[in-house]
Design brief:
The protein has helices at about 1-25, 40-45, 95-110, 130-140, 155-160, 165-185, and strands at about 30, 30-35, 50, 60-65, 65-75, 80-85, 115, 145-150, 185-195, 200-210. By secondary structure, the chain is α+β, with helices and mostly antiparallel strands.
Length: about 220
């Protein structure tokens, strides 16, 4: 009886902790909070149509944003802090990878759920005349772009053009300062990855930096 009671208490505790995690304002991937434990995350991703990879036991695979991807779940102290999406197929065309990168920038800029690092109008696209292979091989240039998820209850308009007068306006400004200070915890960013044989692909990261390692294990 005592063992059964302990088991019930443990299950209730785990359920409570999971519910608290899901209520936190953290980065979401396909509506799923990037949080909790890996087995639960795998189950949730499978419910979105992803399946176990046929060649990598640590990965899932499926379609995301019109592209075939491999999905990796990254943890810190057993808690999920990153979902990484790696394009399944590479390209040797600089023009194509530039178009893919710039298209992603355009999609994030036009998405009401995201803001750029310095406001909604900051452009991070690659110029059409940029020589990618030269910049990467000679100058070690990294091509990446970052965006931040807004809380569900906040719009870009509210954040950058708060309305009201007097104390009401001041309160909104204080709330916006708090939101800005926490935005970097809900980062979604992507980069061009070049393989040694001149093949390119894009990797997208959905990061919950509340769970990221901060040196606690050193």
């Amino acid at each position: 009886m005592k063992k059964l009671l302990c088991a019930i208490i443990a299950l209730l505790y785990a359920a409570t902790m999971q519910a608290q995690e899901e209520e936190k304002d953290v980065t979401k991937f396909l509506g799923i909070p990037v949080d909790g434990y890996k087995p639960a995350m795998i189950k949730k991703l499978k419910s979105k149509g992803f399946t176990r990879s046929t060649w990598d036991k640590d990965a899932l695979e499926g379609e995301f944003n019109g592209t075939d991807v491999n999905v990796y779940i990254v943890t810190n102290n057993k808690k999920v802090w990153r979902i990484a999406l790696i394009n399944k197929y590479t390209t040797d065309s600089e023009t194509e990878i530039r178009l893919r990168f710039n298209r992603l920038c355009e999609q994030f800029e036009n998405n009401p759920k995201y803001v750029g690092p310095f406001g909604p109008f900051k452009k991070q696209r690659i110029p059409d005349d940029e020589d990618l292979s030269y910049e990467i091989s000679v100058h070690n240039k990294c091509y990446e772009a970052s965006y931040y998820q807004l809380p569900d209850s906040v719009t870009k308009e509210q954040l950058f053009r708060p309305t009201g007068e007097g104390e009401e306006l001041r309160e909104k400004l204080r709330e916006n300062i708090t939101i800005f200070s926490e935005l970097d915890k809900k980062c979604v960013w992507f980069r061009i990855s070049e393989k040694c044989d001149g093949e390119y692909r894009i990797i997208i990261y959905y990061d919950n930096k509340y769970n990221e390692a901060d040196g606690e294990d050193l």
